[in-house]
Amino acid sequence: MSTDAGLKFDEQHPELSIVMPCLNEVRTVGTCIKKAQRCIGEMGIHAEIIIADNGSDDGSVELAEKLGARVVHQSRKGYGAALKAGIAAAKGHYIIMGDCDDSYDFLGLAPFVEKLREGYFLVMGNRFAGGIKKNAMPPLHRYFGNPLLTFLGRVFFRASKFGDFYCGLRGFRTESVRSLSLHSDGMEFALEMVIKFTMRGDWATEVPTTLSPDGRDRAPHLKSFRDGWRSLRFYLIMAPRWMFGIPGIIMFSVGSILSFLLLVYPPHLGRNYQDLLMLFISTTLMVVGYQSALMGVFAKLLAIETGLHPPKTILGYFRERSALVLFSVSGLLMILAGIVQAIIVTIYLINTSDLGTPPVNVAGWVFGSTLCLLLGAQNIFSGFLLGEFNLAAERRAELGFEHMKPV
């Protein structure tokens, strides 16, 4: 891991920018600025303090300017929108962001800077490791919401090094975070940052930090259940493998096992109507599961092509033209198999005089034919949709764009 030893900084090109999003925080913004200034002085570094204002009308802006902070304005509402404006305006080689409600420890920024100097691209704070003071975090968040959603984030995105996905005090390299093309304007911005750094494989770590009760005289902007749902929804959007791929593979596998049991051990699964029900269930699971898995592939490719995900992916083969050929040929073979089974069933029914309930093996041929026809059609359609993705990607490459830019 490379370090930044030897780099030169001055007032025009500071080493650090401290960015604080602000919306009517006149009671606490001054305290946060003074603590940050004191920490800068103790570290002896060139740094700037940026207040990313999101439409304050309570005197926060005037107080921040009086104390020597640089104020940038963002008319578009949202926590993420304010931070994006602050990050875009930052002159520092590194950025540390933190809320200006006096809940985060701006006197304890030195460990963040040290890790950034060591070469890390992202340094997260961990409030559970550093200490959460009494009444600083609601019990629902501390013991349920944050641990659960952090656990899901660690599993979904293989981010086992992080124990606090929601800590708002974090540091990162300026150019690295700008290259992530972060889209979110709301509270999902903080999650998107962690997820994209992790997906890209950049060096990241965390350091302990403390959380204190905020100094507001009003209710916080955070809404527990609304923002918890928004977090989960964002996880699923950013992890199509878990939203579509893994559930689809599970459904297809269960359906395949049921079908196999019906072929090999039909007496053990009941007779006639019971077996027909099992055939219906297994076929449905296989069709829905296969479709879900394909949607996972398309969702991942769409996320890459639009810049929502970094280009690194194990699905590179699906971005090649040979994928169109493979899907089309396999689809035609499946359709051919379905037609052959349908012909066999038709011949059997024509030559039999029993017009009652058909035996299970005949029903199996019917369901098998239907399954092959459906999966074959899905394969052909999917192949041509992959072709559309590939043409779009090639077109953007010709125009010189790696991926679409955020709006």
Q: What is the fold's blueprint, element by element?
A:
Layout: E1 16-22, H1 29-43, E2 47-53, H2 60-66, E3 70-73, H3 79-89, E4 94-97, H4 110-118, E5 122-126, H5 127-130, H6 139-156, E6 170-173, H7 174-178, H8 188-200, E7 204-208, H9 224-238, H10 240-264, H11 273-305, H12 322-351, H13 360-399
Parallel strand pairs: 1-2, 1-4, 2-3, 5-7
Antiparallel strand pairs: 4-6, 5-6
Helix pairs in contact: 6-9, 8-9, 10-11, 11-13, 12-13
Biggest sheet strand line-up: 3-2-1-4-6-5-7
Order of helices and strands: EHEHEHEHEHHEHHEHHHHH
Q: Briefly note the CATH topology name of the largest domain.
A: Spore Coat Polysaccharide Biosynthesis Protein SpsA, Chain A
Largest sheet: 7 strands, mixed
Shape assignment:
elongated
Count of DSSP strands: 7
Task: Tell me which CATH architecture of the largest domain applies here.
Answer: Alpha-Beta Complex
Class by SSE composition: alpha/beta
Helix content: 55-70%
Which value, in Å, is the CA radius of gyration? 28 Å
Q: Can you tell me the residue ranges where pLDDT is under 50 for at least 5 consecutive residues?
A: 402-407
Task: Describe this structure as you would to a colleague.
The chain has 407 residues and is an alpha/beta fold. The chain has helices spanning 29-43, 60-66, 79-89, 110-118, 127-130, 139-156, 174-178, 188-200, 224-238, 240-264, 273-305, 322-351, 360-399, and strands spanning 16-22, 47-53, 70-73, 94-97, 122-126, 170-173, 204-208. Helix 6 runs parallel beside helix 9 (224-238), helix 8 packs parallel to helix 9 and helix 10 (240-264) packs antiparallel against helix 11 (273-305). The model is unreliable at 402-407 (pLDDT under 50).
